[in-house]
């Protein structure tokens, strides 16, 4: 079951649960803006993250069999804000990562690894269904420092995703699959 980011964020403003919204295909819509709610996005993305896309330091890892992640993302590059509706299905084990959380956007092309740029709150629920909904405004913090001792999210701008969505991926890490349980390229 997937949710529309617009409906989810609007629902989040008044309640902690979202209602499924049929019909949104989740394609990237450059310059798309909505006036049906208080949120304005310069672009939106729908990402399906699967175990077969997970890459570790030594290549493909296979991720966490049976797990799937759905990332509905709304970006506003004017305010450096990202809104998210993340759903994990079949996720097992504990969240585990060296970062502040175990649910991220990393900068790397398909088949490569790269640093986290945004750390999302981990989805809450059970193995059948876990969800996290909200918005984060930069500057971002990941808890991982680069070689200069600066957090890998500190200077990050969401406009970088819009400029090269194929150069970023969403993932979640489990104690049963530390390099990643699921992964999906943003484009």
Word description of this protein:
The chain is mainly β. It has one domain: Immunoglobulin-like. It has helices at residues 5-14, 159-163; strands at 43-49, 55-56, 59-60, 68-76, 81-89, 103-107, 116-120, 124-125, 130-137, 168-174, 177-185. A 5-stranded antiparallel sheet has the order 1-4-5-9-8, covered by helices on one side. A 4-stranded antiparallel sheet has the order 7-6-10-11, with no helix packed on it. A two-stranded antiparallel ribbon has the order 2-3. A hairpin with an 8-residue loop joins β6 (103-107) and β7. The model is unreliable at 1-35 (pLDDT under 50).
Question: Which descriptors would you attach to this protein?
Answer:
single chain, 187 residues, mainly beta, Immunoglobulin-like, five-stranded antiparallel sheet, four-stranded antiparallel sheet, globular, disordered N terminus
Brief rundown of the structure:
The protein has 187 residues and is mainly beta. It has helices spanning 5-14, 159-163, and strands spanning 43-49, 55-56, 59-60, 68-76, 81-89, 103-107, 116-120, 124-125, 130-137, 168-174, 177-185. It has a single domain (5-185), classed as Immunoglobulin-like (Sandwich).
Structural class: mainly beta
Q: Sheet bearing the most strands, described?
A: 5 strands, antiparallel
Top-tier CATH class: Mainly Beta
**Shape by Cα distribution:** globular
**Sequence stretches where pLDDT stays below 50 over 5 or more residues:** 1-35
Proportion of beta-strand residues: 25-35%
Overall helicity: under 10%
User: Strand sequence of the main sheet, in spatial order?
Assistant: 1-4-5-9-8
Average pLDDT across residues?
Answer: 85
Number of domains: 1
Per CATH, the architecture is: Sandwich
């Amino acid at each position: 079951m997937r949710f529309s980011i617009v409906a989810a964020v609007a629902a989040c403003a008044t309640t902690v649960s979202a209602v499924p919204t049929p019909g949104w295909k989740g394609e990237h819509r450059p310059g798309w803006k909505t006036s049906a709610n208080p949120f304005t996005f310069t672009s939106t993305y729908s990402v399906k993250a699967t175990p077969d896309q997970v890459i570790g330091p030594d290549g493909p890892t296979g991720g966490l069999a049976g797990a799937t992640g759905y990332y509905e993302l709304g970006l506003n590059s004017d305010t450096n804000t990202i809104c998210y509706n993340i759903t994990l299905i079949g996720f097992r084990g504990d969240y585990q990562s060296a970062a502040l959380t175990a649910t991220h956007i990393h900068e790397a092309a398909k088949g490569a690894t790269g640093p986290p740029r945004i750390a999302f709150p981990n989805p809450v629920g059970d193995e059948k269904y876990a969800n996290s909904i909200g918005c984060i405004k930069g500057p971002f913090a990941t808890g991982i420092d680069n070689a200069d001792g600066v957090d890998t999210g500190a200077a990050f701008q969401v406009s970088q995703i819009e400029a090269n969505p194929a150069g970023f991926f969403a993932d979640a890490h489990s104690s049963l699959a530390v390099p990643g349980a699921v992964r999906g390229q943003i484009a």
